[in-house]
């Protein structure tokens, strides 16, 4: 098991990529903290992991609210005594073209996808610094490198995540903390449920593998980067996109 006895917090872990990552980490031996805003989905996710024989607890948190983030970190340390891995997966989309995007749409995406990542990393960074070890993994996107039509807010947030990832790798490496990000391409999650079939087919055609990725594909990347197999990898943005952007 790659993550045996590791304690891992995964935000946005009640659905989609976050849930797949929680399941993968559990199968690899980690003790998983399901952190999300939806209490019902948290409960279902924790029960699913326990049914698979894993260990998990659920904590409700809004990553944009620092007090709740501090409580998440403190409760996890109280429960397990340490935090080995954080996956900053929580994220939302509020798509609109630049000339039609509202201030509210901009603020919501920046708040969750950028400020939320900062809040979690800063809070857990102090714990990992004292431990002299830890792994921070951030959810980026190919949109954070190449941009995307109708996603000014999302692209800006993910560009910011890339910059923070590399900056934190430089700042925290001296404390034994590794910081990396995963940049998914087009992945079959609830986020794409409202996308027309012709658009999905077009994205498949753009992929060199001619397919849409699965949440498990991304979870596998996170599990590798969280493990000791990646002990010499930091400051990296790992694209998992089926060759979408080559």
UniProtKB/TrEMBL annotation:
Binding positions for NADP(+) per the UniProt entry: 12-15, 89, 154-158, 187
InterPro entries per UniProt: 3oxo_ACP_reduc, KR_dom, NAD(P)-bd_dom_sf, Sc_DH/Rdtase_CS, SDR, SDR_fam
List of catalytic residues: 154 (proton acceptor)
UniProt xrefs under Gene3D superfamilies: NAD(P)-binding Rossmann-like Domain
EC class name: oxidoreductase
Signal sequence annotation: none
Keyword terms of this UniProt record: Fatty acid biosynthesis, Fatty acid metabolism, Lipid biosynthesis, Lipid metabolism, NADP, Oxidoreductase
Domain Ketoreductase, first and last residues per copy: 6-185
PANTHER family hit by this protein: 3-OXOACYL-(ACYL-CARRIER-PROTEIN) REDUCTASE, 3-OXOACYL-[ACYL-CARRIER-PROTEIN] REDUCTASE FABG
Function as written in the Swiss-Prot or TrEMBL entry: Catalyzes the NADPH-dependent reduction of beta-ketoacyl-ACP substrates to beta-hydroxyacyl-ACP products, the first reductive step in the elongation cycle of fatty acid biosynthesis.
UniProt name for this protein: 3-oxoacyl-[acyl-carrier-protein] reductase
